[in-house]
Amino acid sequence: MNKQILDVAKTVSYEMDVSKEVILEAIEAALEMATKRRHLTPIDVRVSIDPETGAYSTFRVWTVVNPDNEEIEFDPELHLNLEDGQAKGLKEGDTVEEPMESVEFGRIAAQTAKQVIVQKVREAKRTKVIEAYSDKLNQLIAGMVKHVSHDGIVLDLGDNAEAIIPREEMLPSESVRSGDRIRGYLYEIRPEARGPQLFVSRACKEMLMELFKIEVPEIGEEVIEIKALSRDPGVRSKVAVKTNDGRIDPIGACVGMRGSRVQVISNELNGERIDIILWDDNPAQLTINAMAPAEVASIVVDEETKTMDIAVDPEQLSQAIGRGGQNVRLASALTGWTLNVMTVEEAEKKGQADSEKTQKMFMNKLDIDEEIAAIFVREGFGSLEEIAYIPAEELANIEEFDEEIVAALQERAKEILAKQEADAPQPDETLLQMRGMDRELANKLAAKKIKSMENLADLGVEELIDIVGDMPKERAAELIMTAREPWFE
Q1: Interatomic CA distance for residues 242 and 240, integer angstroms
Q2: Is the confidence at residue 294, as pLDDT, over 80?
């Protein structure tokens, strides 16, 4: 009988590609179940099999519990009174074992063992899949298309492992059939009761970046760096690259001889058009590069709102915007700036309108005539802060101004700014002293009538981001949860 157990373990281990230890554990569990069924009342049992000889022993088990514990219904068949256990030097939760008669590994035990083995094998394979692919998370993996449905694609990765490409992570116009071999970016491993689910994407930006690392050795070796990337999956992408090695042309290296390198990547992504541009630390120059193939005639940068007005010749307008706004949308995502594309004539009209608006603002707030206001606009001033805090000698260098006029104008500008600050809504101390808050952010919130921690606690993450502007979701969520801490006290 002992030899029979070892034979079963060896055979099943070989056929199911599972370790012998897992099979022996399953047989132990089956023998435990068979032993319990022989008793009229519930008991706890432990079976131990010697992996060398196949001999096994059975032990009846009692757990030391406190009978006063309301969460446990004391059963003398399963439990040992805590007082009696302490007399034997045991504490609550310890177990006591006594040898008992073992059941034979016969037909019934074998049937039970089969069911348990199947379950153990499934669990072992799940663990094996997670172990095999946890190191491949955030990397490219390849597989054979097993099934295509409205919900997505099932990939056969081999060794009984499968991955899912959800519909939203597929390339929109890509035609895939069963038996095709494709690659994707493994972005999530989700343990589930039915087994670990591997989720793969062909539409994410990381997929494109990983392909560049494979096809362009200089990127893999970090000689060339991908600084930014924006993508309309399956249609068009823009990739900004940079190198610190003056001997290397980063764009030429990525394109390859006669476009060979970028063409391989494009073919992998169902013909996706890929624009490779040169990275520039100057946002305006980067935007000009990103608008290619359209040529930019002029560009106006507003750092406060993080927007740029881009002027192009009328014949370049459709190319600059792109089909369905694709070119300007990708350029905006690449640079992180809001881009407004217009013709040169429209830009001139807008510039004139903005100048007139700024001129009227200076006239009204500083109580100056049209001529002086026009001088400020001509010299590039756009706010009272610039006039108030620019060094006086720089203002005095303007031909029409002298030191007396400069001093008067700056004094007037500072008085107006001080009055505006005094009249502005002020944050209360709960908001100012809140963990993670600073004065600038608190003032910005107070201007939108969010003056206290209590006001902030009532906001959602998206609401806070809309109010503040450029803020990571993680920080917005952290601030809101900090503001809500008094709710849980």
Answers
A1: 7
A2: yes
Q: What is the DSSP letter of 408?
A: H
Q: Report how far residue 449's alpha carbon sits from residue 437's, in angstroms, rounded to the nearest whole number.
A: 16
Query: What gap in Å lies between CA 171 and CA 169, rounded to an integer?
Result: 7
Strands 95-100 and 273-278: unpaired
Q: Using an 8 Å Cβ cutoff, are 486 and 433 in contact?
A: no
Cα gap 412→372, rounded to integer Å: 14
For residue 285, give every residue at least 6 positions away whose Cβ sits within 8 Å of its Cβ, in sequence order, or none: none
Distance (Å, rounded) from C-alpha 207 to C-alpha 233? 10
> Are 373 and 365 spatial neighbours (Cβ–Cβ below 8 Å)?
no
Most confidently modeled of 69-73, 116-120, 253-257?
A: 253-257
* pTM of the predicted model as reported, rounded to 2 decimal places: 0.61
Quote the CA–CA distance of 157 and 189 in Å, as a whole number: 14
Runs of H (alpha helix) within 75-222: 82-87, 107-134, 205-215, 217-220
Q: What is the pLDDT of residues 89-100, one digit of tens each?
A: 888 888 888 888
The residues near 121 (Cβ < 8 Å, ≥ 6 apart) are 12, 16, 18, 22, 26
* DSSP alpha helix (H) spans, 249-336: 250-255, 260-268, 283-290, 317-321, 326-335
The pLDDT of residue 117 is 67
CB neighbours of 187 closer than 8 A, spacing ≥ 6?
137, 138, 199, 200, 201, 204, 206
Report the amino acid identity of residue 438.
Answer: D
Written as one letter, the residue type at 440 is E
Q: How many residues are recorded in the chain?
A: 489
Distance CA 233, CA 328 (A): 16
Q: Which residue has the tokens 């720089």?
A: 394
Taking the C-alpha atoms of residue 33 and residue 44, their distance in angstroms, rounded to an integer, is: 10
Name the strand (E) or helix (H) holding 410.
helix 403-423
**First vs last Cα of the chain: how many Å apart?**
64
> Would you tell me the crossing angle of helices 344-366 and 403-423 to the nearest 10 degrees?
90
